[in-house]
Amino acid sequence: MTVTLARAVQAPTGLASAALAPAAATLRPLPRQAVRWSLRAAFAAPYVVLALVAARATPTPLLGLTGNQVTLDRATAALDDGVVQAIGQLYPLLSGVLLRFMPFGVQGAAVLGAVAAGVLLQVLAQDMLRRGLRMREVVAFTVALGANPLYAFVALNDLQAFLGIALFALAVVDMVRFFAWGDTQAGFRAGLALMLSTLLDPMGFVYVSIAALAAPVLDLARHDQRGIRRANVLVLVFPSVAVALSTAVLDWMVLHDPFAAIRGTIDVSPQRLAGLHHLFATADGLLLIAMVVAGATLALLVGRPGAIALVVALFVGIIGGYAIGLVPIAAAGTCS
Question: Is this prediction's pTM over 0.85?
Answer without folding.
Answer: no
